[in-house]
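Most newcomers find our protein records easier to grasp once they have seen one. A learned vocabulary of local backbone shapes supplies the integers on the structure line. Here is such a record, shown just as it appears in the course material:
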Amino acid sequence: MKEPYEAYLDDYNCLDVYMSKNFFGGKSRIFHMKDTKDRIIPLTIQSQSDLYNGYTHYSLSLNGNLQMGQEYTVYDEHCKTCVAKYSHIVKTERFAKEYMYEKEDLGVTYTPEKTTFKVWAPTALAVYVGYVLNGKKIVESMVRQDKGVFSLTVNKDLNGVHYSYLVRVNGEYKGVTDPYTCFSGPNGQYSVIVDPKSLKLPKKIKLKPMDSECDAIIYEASIRDMTSQTGIGVSHPKKFVGFTEENEITKAHSTGFSYLKSLGVTHVQLMPVFDFGSVDEVYPNIFYNWGYDPVQYRCLEGAYSLDPKNAKLRIEEFANLVHDCHKAGIRVNLDLVFNHVYVKENFALENMVPDYYFLMNREGEFSNGSFCGNDIDTQPYMARKYFLETCKKIIELFDVDGFRFDLMGILDYNLMNEISEECKKLKPDFMIYGEGWNMPSFVAEEIRASQLNQAKMPHVGHFSDRFREVVRGSNDELSRKGFASGQADLFYQVKCVMAASCMDHVFDSPAKVINYVECHDNHTLWDKNRVCCHGESRDLREKRQIMANAMVLLAQGVPFIHCGQEFGRTKQGLGNTYNRSDNYNRVDYQRRDHHIEIVERTKELIQLRKEHPCFRLSTVEDIEKGVQFDSIYDQVLVYSCQKGDDHCMAFFNPTNIPYDYHLDQEARVLFDDGNSNALETQDIHIAAFSVVVCQFGLTA
């Protein structure tokens, strides 16, 4: 409580009043409410209780009909007043039924002759549109219509006009940008009306469809990090246009997009590109941030644009980025942060319909499973409709190929299934996956979009923290090793994760399993191994890096590589560099050159996976039929996989002892970072700390 006297409408017939004991002792014998037309609604005290925080709580019933959107003033026996705030009432079934708006026309509809503004704000007393035309500031009142929609049509050409809304709700005026638009001014100060026909968008490129998500090789990258190092030949570093810029210098030194193309990955997963609040878009170099601080869900981040004041430009720049990637045969997945917002009190949807879009309980407490102070509530109809429409608009506008959902476990699995269904209607091989951690939010555990409920999400993937912990070692305890860093006794667990955790039924499809040992969060693999493999030489840590990468790329499921994992990226020993400047986060191409052996080996492994369908089995049945394991003294993993005529065997030796393995037929060696075998052989030598891959059936 902040005020000495507060009231909340929690239901159509229930009002909760909280009075400070410093305010008339917190006592009142009677209450009533009055609306803006001076009509009185009597209130009856149902219960009264003393709270530990120095307030008296009154539960009151309403003796009259409530009119949604009216502003009600509560009077106590001392004639003291406060505005009754619409609170949990917006979560009730009656509210949901009466204010379900099904049309997809919220926001701005533009023609040269007129512009129509529409917003959904059922609890608002009034909504105004403010805009600037020919240097003159104009404010016009919107008209309340059915289903809580406010509308206004201006019969003028408003192309290029800046605008915002002013909403009167819960006794206060709040300035609000348009949450439904894709066009924003710098730092979300205002929204912009744009003629969609004036956008110069590239023609979409149709790529050959994937047969399965298991065909994907995902590479996570940041728009800023890829080109923030100086001297790499990029004329527009840290920008959308710089991300895909190529010239003689980038090609000669394999930097930026030239380097990304050389890796052979199928998908680039971009860290947040939509408007976030932790960087000043006008002065983007003052602050650094990864961007997990959403402000506007449909507007691109202006810090990545050459001109953040040009609302059209950032749209065109990003559309061209996707186009350039598609021309290079690389699909684009976007990291979406639908679980929380940067500042709840400043969020446009919150100020239009307070409390509706956030998880809260009947006591008015807000869920904090994201540990960011607020959790989005995706269960109310208009909330899930907003996020569904947002996903569809992003695909239709930019032609992207997949979404990765941050802290997906805070969302509900019904929404994820709906998103998957709608996205796959637009692109059948569209990828949907996310962090399925079981977050401690107010969402009931049985409906969370977490790994626990993976069977209820047939086309939604999950990052496999199990794979990470087994292969890399403990994410929390840096000193605890994984299989690739020398913990050979994890033999049973490593067999499970190499089979996409399908043989032991943790997952019911390999297409759902995102295998990784490094992502933007936590220490890089190289920094982790510097601790858990302390005392080992740099050459040996390179071999461990190659082995971990090989396990990611050859395991059943979907491989995921964090940018720089292929050259031993370091963040100088820090586990969380989300705001720690370019010096910690940039892609260091000199370091890349220093560890070029890891790069070249990783490229070979990427190509090997693409060429051999036996590493990309798409069903549990295929895995059960085609994957087998053996071992050499429970120290070396022997991993055999087959699909049709494609039959390969891989050996992973994380120990300092070399081993030999006799095959029942001659095989061709496809990969051997120990350089210990002839091209064709029946006796495989697995050097210490090495990976060997061979194929059967191709010898003369």
In short: The chain has a mean pLDDT of 96. The chain is about 20% helix and 25% strand. Residues 337 and 406 are 5 Å apart (CA to CA). Residues 381-398 form the longest helix (18 residues).
